[in-house]
Amino acid sequence: MMITINEDNLFAVIIKGSLGLVVFLTLAGWALFSVKVGLGALAGGCIAIANFFWIRNVLERILGQLPSNATTYAQLRFIARLSITGMLLYFIITSGWFSLAGIFVGLSVIVINIIALSIYSALRAGG
């Protein structure tokens, strides 16, 4: 079964692929290394996916606003997202329950998935 990826379903494909990758990395980290690595991959992946959702939501709202309001709105949301993510990562890292390597791998799931989709699309197009 061939999945057609277009502008309408690209976000859903990225999210589904990233969720699948988080599950795989969590189970692989747990089975091959330790529970801490698996938990780190899970925590990092959840943070990455939540950030991706948040960025998309902010962009949709910005595009629907007047240009004068959009700049302030974007700056405040960026600072809020960065601050909340930073505090969350601080508490996760200092808790001692998660592997730092697992967290880094988990935080990379969106990027890994976008690169894989780009390669897939290029190969499908004959490039």
Number of strands: 0
Average of the residue pLDDT scores: 89
Classify the beta-strand content into a percent band.
under 5%
What general form does the structure show? flat
As residue ranges, the low-confidence spans are none
* Domains (count): 1
Biggest sheet record: none
What share of the residues lie within helices?
A: over 70%
What structural class results from the helix and strand content? mainly alpha
- Roughly how many Å is the radius of gyration? 17 Å
Distance between the terminal alpha carbons, to the nearest Å?
21 Å
Q: What string, H for helix and E for strand, traces the elements in order?
A: HHHHH
Per DSSP, the total helix count is 5
What can be said about this structure in brief?
The chain has helices at residues 10-32, 35-63, 67-95, 100-107, 109-124. With 127 residues, the chain is an all-alpha fold.
Describe the protein.
It is a single chain. The chain is mostly helical and 127 residues long. It has one domain (11-124). Helices cover 83% and strands 0% of the residues. The chain has five helices and no strands. The chain has helices spanning 10-32, 35-63, 67-95, 100-107, 109-124. The longest helix is centred in the middle third of the chain and has 29 residues, at 35-63.
